[in-house]
Amino acid sequence: MFRTLRTAMQDNPLDASQIEALAKANQMASAGNPAGAAPLFAELARELDAPHPRRAANLHARAAHAYADANRPQLALEQARAALNLFIQYQMAARTPVFYANITRKFTNKGMTGAAAAIQNEFGSRVGSIPAQSQGPARPIVRHGALPTNCPKCGGPIHSDSISWVDNQTVECEYCGALIRSTPNR
Question: Which residues are registered as beta bridge partners of 170?
Answer without folding.
Answer: 167, 181
